[in-house]
Please model this.
Amino acid sequence: MPHSFPFLSTEQKKELSDIAQKIVAPGKGILAADESTGSVAKRFQSINTENTEENRRLYRQLLFTADSVEPCIGGVIFFHETLYQKTDDGQLFPELIKDRGMVVGIKVDKGVVPLAGTNGETTTQGLDGLYERCAQYKKDGADFAKWRCVLKITDTTPSELAIKENANVLARYASICQMHGIVPIVEPEILPDGDHDLKRTQYVTEKVLAAVYKALSDHHVYLEGTLLKPNMVTAGHSCPQKFSNQEIAMATVTALRRTVPPAVPGITFLSGGQSEEEATINLNAMNQCPLHRPWAITFSYGRALQASALKAWGGKPENGKACQDEFIKRALNNSKACQGKYVSTGEKGAAGGESLFVANHSY
Amino acid sequence: MTTQFPSLSPEQKKELSNIAQKIVAPGKGILAADESTGTMAKRLQKINVENTEENRRSFRDLLFSAVDPNCIGGIIFFHETLYQKSDNGVPFPKVIKDKGIVVGIKVDKGTAALNGTDGETTTQGLDGLSERCAQYKKDGCDFAKWRCVLKISDSCPSALSIAENANVLARYASICQQNGLVPIVEPEILPDGDHDLLRTQYVTEKVLAATYKALNDHHVYLEGTLLKPNMVTAGHSCTKKFSPQEVAMATVTALRRTVPAAVPGVTFLSGGQSEEEATQNLNAMNQTALHRPWKLSFSFGRALQASALAAWQGKAANKKAAQDAFTSRAKSNGLASKGEYKSTAGADKASMQSLHTANYVY
Model:
């Protein structure tokens, strides 16, 4: 315990730190395009499109070839299948993304599994062979990874076991990634399902994040080469009381200030079930919050970047440009928001104002 | 664990937060004048002065009557001193408060051995602490201090020592806040030993991570606390020497990895450093390129008083000389807490050392 056995060289640390900084450079955030095949099924079903490998390729191609998003997107998270797909011209997707100056990321977890003896709580699997998989992903162009843990708020949850177990598995994953030059994005998502208020979410978020950073310290993770992907602190979806964007921003930034060490370069929020507009406005409010923030505060959005684009596409090739236009719009808005410069025009886009909440969401 | 049972009202939180901010206001730090009677014996023996209650009062009076509120935001008292009076018959807490300086009190009762360890300790003083804090608050105190001690050796600090000291610090902090006192949390890692800078940094990171996890577990309101850690330096018998810039980088890096931004300030202990060394190191820290969301200031005992004691020699005729020495150190450290200290004389060479000399991996 009192002796250090360093395993990252100076060069390795610098590489990790540089990658992390590149992803959260001013004005930039992450496009989470790592929906698993099962998740894509749900998305495509809502636009009456068949969930084929080709359709998934076509859709991701639209996103990856959209113009003018380089100043807004620092990194893209891939699903395994997508990492090996190509553009119509035969260029591998990761190469395309890299050529455009964006960092390639890869989802590496293998989904949630139940924790016996708890009230429906889970941990996340995927550690087996992760060492070898990371080495391969690095060769195949990935420079960062993502692993999602899930917690929920009820009268009895999150339990001490759920908090500890998820924090520990996140730290193991992070440690393994760093050995292969991959920046781990640490995602301890607390679901918004429930009728709890803002205070409760803030309290739970502080407890969860404190446990996460203690685990990262115990596992000797190099914080300057990591990113955090937490939930924003919002009330539960069925909470009768509504809270303003400023209240959400204050609660969120306060929770982070109490738990996330300044050495962490950036915090890239998940959008949960928030609408595109809501996610942008909340991010903006956080970047306007009077409380001092030592890390970048930006986005890692899936649905909140793609909902309108998906709708505009509808699975039809002739809608390609409309799809890209929607995506570009959202990317630009969030780029402004992560600098505290977003001014809402009230324009909602094809799906801008719709709540994207899917009950008890799991990938 | 998952349901909150709030223990501080918004007013209580605001009071604690305001006190903490006041202590570490820009350019200000803490005078640690809380030497116990036993420790004062050592100090006074050095200048051949008898360790009487009157001599202790007299020396503190010398300091308190001259103290400059522009560089001192808070003063830590020992219990006896809290109830002593100035030469003019004014109670010391009142003298200090009237100057706009916050009054603090040492509340721990010293270290106690941890069985089964290699000479490690925890700190006692929790019994009746709540009642004592309530009384101290009535008697003019607004912050408290509690010192835990860890050491570095081949086998230390052990997991038990780290966990136990973190826990007792969190209990102390929690009790203080209930009574309107801002707790200064002090997990001192002694500089004794021949370990290098890297080792101290590693241990400091582990100790501070455990400290902040414990504070979180105990629901301590971080915005109403201060941290008093050791600077990250090599052990005293380490053959390799490190510059103030290296000390600064190692220290600030360790803090950035463990101390949440919500903590308003970090007020370093000076340990066994000389007055000049402590000031230079603090200054270097406030000049590093690494972003620091908390104030970095001082909570010095010896590093503020050594020259004053030497000048005083227990003689009334030397009072002004002693006060001048003290004021000079206080001003220097006030500047250092803003990164504006310019050292004079021989110290210049050390402070000019290039930042690029170290092959040092942080």
About this structure: Residues 23 and 56 of chain A are 25 Å apart (CA to CA). The interface with chain B takes residues 1-4, 6, 9-10, 13, 153, 155-160, 163, 199-200, 203-204, 206-207, 210-211, 213-214, 217-218, 223, 254, 256-263, 292-294 of chain A (CB under 8 Å). The radius of gyration of chain A is 19 Å.
